[in-house]
């Protein structure tokens, strides 16, 4: 028997409500935290600003908040939360099969970058990809970017949001596309050509979600992509 679907929390309006809640809670609590920190620790506040400490904290907090909100939302209803979020074991060879297109994309990217190096198209390539981070905070930034963020974001986008669109009778591929569009919009602060790259990578992740019926390969691909910026 098919599990009852609570469209109020796990459909189109549920997606809007959950995403809005995450955005609002993050901005409100992050603003309050910054204000209190500045009042109570004025010297440390200046150091954090200079060393981008708040960016690191925001990454941790955003991941934590996303997981908490999604977890609270998906526990409603009779269907098990792991089924709703597509948390299923997938074989290593299958995961590797969907990670390979990511590296093939970058091989093609760097080939085209070299090929168009002396042309007007050079401006459309990201000139510097590697992140230069102080050794003292490297582990924390790496943990936030390569481990926590991919887990939290894939639970939200390819887990909760993807399933929400499927519950509204969208096909799997349409749901993957729509979740990719929302994922790109969530990263609006990047430049246009970098957003295009994010769209391509997110589409690969969405394809893996459709074919494997699991978010595990999605997390691995996302983590691998983020890790590229550290090496």
Listing every helix as H and every strand as E from the N terminus to the C terminus, the arrangement reads HHHHHHHHHH
Main pleated sheet: none
So what's the overall shape? globular
CA-CA gap between termini? 49 Å
Quaternary organization: single chain
| Percent of sequence in beta strands | under 5%
Overall strand count: 0
Radius of gyration (Å): 19 Å
Helical segment tally? 10
How many domains make up the coordinates?
1
Please, what is the average pLDDT? Answer: 86
Q: What structural category do the secondary elements indicate?
A: mainly alpha
- What percentage of residues falls in helices of 4 or more residues? over 70%
| Low-confidence spans | 1-5
What would you say about this model in short?
The protein has 231 residues and is mainly alpha-helical.
Q: In words, what does this structure look like?
A:
The structure is a single chain. With 231 residues, this protein is an all-alpha fold. 75% of the residues lie in helices and 0% in strands. The chain has helices spanning 7-10, 12-40, 42-50, 53-74, 81-84, 92-115, 135-167, 172-186, 192-212, 216-227. The longest helix is centred in the middle third of the chain and has 33 residues, at 135-167.
Q: Which tags fit this structure?
A:
231 residues; mainly alpha; disordered N terminus
Furnish the topology, listing elements before pairings.
Layout: H1 7-10, H2 12-40, H3 42-50, H4 53-74, H5 81-84, H6 92-115, H7 135-167, H8 172-186, H9 192-212, H10 216-227
